[in-house]
Amino acid sequence: MAGLDGKAILITGAARGIGAATARELDRRGARLLLLDLDPEPIERLAAELRHAVALPADVTDAVALAHAVTTGIERLGGLDCAIANAGIGPVGSVEELAPELFERTIDVNLLGAYRTLRLSLPHVRARGGYLLAVASLAAPVHSPLMAHYAASKAGVEAFADALRTEVAHEGVAVGVAYFGWIATEMVRAGMEDPGAAAMRRGSLPGPMRRDLPPEGAARAVAGGIERRARVVAYPWWVRPILAARGLIQPLTELQLRRSGMAAEAVRASARLRPGPGGDNVGRAMRVIDCECGATLQAANDDDLAGQVREHLDADHPDMEMTDDELRGFVSGKAYAASDS
C-alpha cells in the first residue's frame, strides 16, 4: 500500500496512547480516518485536530454496536483500505488473585474485540485489496507472571491474525501483527502502579528494555507497516530479535525467574494483604477501577472522584471492600487509568 494519501483507515482504541498517536501520524501522511473508541469525547477532540477524520463511539465487546459504528463510518468514508485492531486493556494480577471478571474482560476486549473488528472490516478491505493489522504485544511470545490474562489474549491475537493471513492472501488482502515494547501510555503507567509488576520490570530486563518509549515511535512503525503491507510491525528495534529467538527466550525467562525468586516476590507484592477467604479485596477493587472506571471518571476534586468510585463498587461489586482512606489515597495518587493500547 505504497503511500497513504487518500487511503481510508479504521482504528479502534483511538482515544489515547498508540491509537491516538497513530491517527496523527496517518493524518500527517494524508490518510482519511475512522476513529472508534469506547470514550467518545477524546476521539471527537482528536478528529477536530485532523484534516479528514470521522469519530464514532464503539465498544469492541458489543458486536451489534460495533457493527453499526463500522458500517456507518465506512459509509461516511466511502470505503475502507485498512483496519487496525488496536483497542486493548491490561489489568495486572496473578491468575489466583485477579478478579475473574477482569480476566474475562481482557480476553473479550483484546482478543474477541480484534476478531470482531477485523471480521467486520474484511469485506470492505477485500474490495480494495487492502491490509488488516492486529496489535499484539511482546506478551504474545514471552509470557510473564501477573500477566497470564494479557498474554493469553495477545497470543490469541497473534494466532488469529496468522491464521487469517492464510485465509485471505489469495484474495489480495494482507494481514500483519504489531509487537511493541514498553510504550508510554496510560495503560502502561497504570500497570506500573502495581508493585509486583514494577519489581518484575526493574529486575528482569536490561536497562534499554526498561525504558518507556514515546507512542509516536510506535505510530511511525505502524504507518510504515501499512505502507509495506508488512507481516510484522515491531518497535523498537530490539523487538525483532526477541521474536526470532522466542523458542529460547521463554524457557530461559522461566529459569531466571525461578532461580532468582523474582516471580514469587512479584506475586506476593501484587497480592498485597489477603484479609480472608475473599482474597485481596483492596487489590481486586483497584483493578476493577483501572478496567471499568478510568475513561469515565470526571470530577472537580479527589473527594468527588472517590465518591464516584464508591458508588460504582457498591452498585456493581458489592463483595469488594475498600476503606474510605484507602479509596481516597488510591484516587489522589491518580492510579486509575483509562484503558488503551
Quickly list its features:
disordered C terminus, 15 helices, seven-stranded parallel β-sheet, 55% helix, 341 residues
Molecular structure report:
The protein is of the alpha/beta class. It has a seven-stranded parallel sheet, with helices on both faces. The chain contains 15 helices and seven strands.
In short:
55% of the residues lie in helices and 11% in strands. The chain is α/β, with parallel strands linked by helices and 341 residues long.
Draw up the topology in text:
Blueprint (H helix, E strand, L loop, with lengths): L7 E5 L4 H12 L3 E6 L2 H10 L3 E5 L5 H15 L4 E4 L14 H28 L3 E5 L12 H21 L5 E7 L5 H6 L3 H10 L2 H4 L4 H14 L3 E4 L3 H6 L1 H15 L1 H10 L9 H13 L8 H15 L7 H9 L9
Parallel strand pairs: 1-2, 1-4, 2-3, 4-5, 5-6, 6-7
Helix pairs in contact: 1-9, 3-4, 4-5, 7-12, 14-15
Number of helices: 15
The average pLDDT value, as a whole number, equals 83
H/E element sequence: EHEHEHEHEHEHHHHEHHHHHH
Strand adjacency order, main sheet: 3-2-1-4-5-6-7
Structural class: alpha/beta
Low-confidence stretches: 273-280, 333-340
Percentage of β-strand residues = 5-15%
| Rg result | 20 Å
Helix content: 55-70%
Gross geometry:
globular
Task: Give the beta-strand count.
Answer: 7
